[in-house]
Prior knowledge:
Elements: H1 7-19, E1 24-26, H2 36-53, H3 64-83, H4 90-116, H5 119-145, H6 150-153, E2 159-161, E3 168-170, E4 173-175, H7 183-192, H8 194-203, H9 207-226, H10 230-243, H11 249-269, H12 273-282, H13 288-299, H14 301-306, H15 328-361, H16 365-384, H17 394-417, H18 424-429, E5 432-434, E6 449-451, H19 452-457
Antiparallel strand pairs: 1-2, 3-4, 5-6
Amino acid sequence: MQPQGPWFAIVILPFVALTIPAALVFTGPLESNGWVGRLIVFWVAAAVIVGWVGRVGRPPRASPSDIGLWLLIGALTTSVAASGLRILTESESTGVTRAALVMFPLAIVALGISAGADRRRTDALLAAILVGATVSALVGVMQFVRPFDLATVIRLPGMTARQLGGMGSRGGFFRVKGAAGHPIEFGVICGALVPLGMHFVRFGRTHSRRVLATMATACLLLGIPMGVSRSGILVVAVALSVYAVVLSVRQRISLLILGAGAALVMRAAIPGLLGTVTSFFENASTDNSVSGRTQDYAQIDAFFRETPILGRGLGTFRPEDYFFLDNQYLLALVEGGIVLVVATILFFLFAAAACRGASVRAARAIDASRAQAVMAALLAIGVSGAFFDLFSFAQVTVLAFILVGIAGALWRQGVDDGLPIPSAVDRIRGLRVPVSAGRRAADGRTPAGLAVGDALSRRSVHD
Length: 463
């Protein structure tokens, strides 16, 4: 059965976005908007809007993820409006248009995914994300062996490579970036998606799929230190900590043992790499990249005091006019004021809440694992915004919005066919929680009542 409407484009979007470098664009006036991933986003956003206009009947109930998206859309709108309150330079005016063309279509795509993705489509999207990230990780491994930039290797008719760079030597090792735009973006993507790989390792429908998922997860883990960046290590630590909620104590211990074993193998295979990465944490107080980030706090104070509520305008804080700001939340504070930075934080938190709601409602282990893996990736990406200007990088921005849309879809799936969320008192006392008529438990029966403990134990059953 073929996907209906724009679903084929939606499913291939994450694979295309994560494997085709954003530096590779069609020649002409589109410039950065000529990236294939962004052109697909424009098409899907237009299809979603047409679907809204032609929709008959009551719209689906808004998920927490949808609320976060609408709050972000509102904050972005006020930030664009704020840019009209002062005279802009040509560079600032271009920046407003560029940022608007990135953020608004992606928000619409995320709302479309949230409203229309069933479980089959959700799994297809998650699989496409994992495959795309794995391809990028494999490219990173090849770059570590022999340095090259993927954007210069791919030769497609009518396309050109622009704004190359980002790779270089650090600590005596070449920093890889895979298909991403920078080693930090590469490390964040690899680290955030490790729980997604673990989900497919645990719940792949066939043995061969579980083996492939194991290999994909290993590639992601291998790519993280090859970026020679603290961000990837911190992101994978956050992601695994969140995903560990759905693992048993034995599984957590096994994960720690496997991690220690993998570190020993890495240390033997590539001497000095792990030591170099860990030294960045030990010597953080004297690291120029860390001191540069902390110096940003004092520099932006004057900009913030000028327009603390609405900011200077979306996309107006251009590096060529001012300086690089390696912190998405500080950048949002300058460009959109308190309104935008709060909306950006809620954008991630509301999506995480949607995933948590889906995980708590799940009657099966596979559903809980899926929701927790998406939640882990979202929170990890959200945390990474404190380390670099997150939404200035094309691939991780597309990934974040797709995951937010998936979070809304998972929440709706949990509401439709999951267990009711027990109250805090019920969870503490282990009281029996009723299951609505027609809602099947994991063993296929439809009991009149189901104990909280029984519901959790039945999560061990697969699809």
